[in-house]
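Need tokens for this chain, all 305 residues.
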Amino acid sequence: MTSSSLDPVLLKKKLLYLASSGSFTNFTPQQLHDAYEELQDFLIVHHDKLLDSIELFNLYELQFYLSVLTLHDIEAKNALDRITDQFSIIKTDKELRSQRIAILQSIYAELQGDLKHASKLLSEDPDELKLSRRLTTLSRHDAGDSSKYINNLIYYLNLQPSDVQTWNELGEQYKILGHYDKAIYCLKEIVLQDPQAYPIFYKMGLLYYYLFLQLETNLKTEKKDKLFELMKVLINARDNYLYSLEINDTYKKNWVGLKALAELGFNDKLKKISESSKEIKEYLSSNDKLKVIIDKKIKELNIEI
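Here are the structure tokens for all 305 residues:
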């Protein structure tokens, strides 16, 4: 059943869940586009029929975020104007008329390059947790001072350890700096809360691969114990790709990642010492078996390498 054929009530539940869970932040570009189109159509037909005021606010807010993420700047401004016009006068819900609206306004100001105005919108009530989160995000613009941004993210996570988006941001910062082990730790915190987040398992596989490349580059010796340690990093990369595929076996990036692991020149180094290690033999054997499956799936999914 396609989304367009869903009963309107079921579709409303689906969209409200998307708004409340924030799962759209891990969507692929195509998934974001589909969600954007789906929400646009739903709001045109049902905005005054199936939704109470709180539900309407949540979906307008979702519309704003999806518009931003799909680069529909005009639609993002229209969604923000609707929220401001219809909800800023609400007296019974302080969060709706202040905190969340201020966050949206600051995001739009940031998109327009007006960082000063974006910060001013948030600093009017710095004790609010969500506003503090946005102030933390804005600190990433401090030129040449990534350490300040990282420290702000860590400080916020001490207050709100369940914020998966912040863990994702912190992991991204560590990745940029080449601290792949720390980035992996951040992503592990995400999958503890969302064990079905297959894009995150893919990212962990990729980070383990980057970590392997980093360690191999710095390797000063080819002693068996050092090669064995590198092999374990590759096993972690492989296992995360495979776990992601258990959840979604058509996620193409995993197959590309697995092919890269299976064809590494490093495997030739392992072959030279494989007779002295059962675990190395098993790793190389599983690689050979995976190659057949990988090549078949890449052809089946028409993946360009």
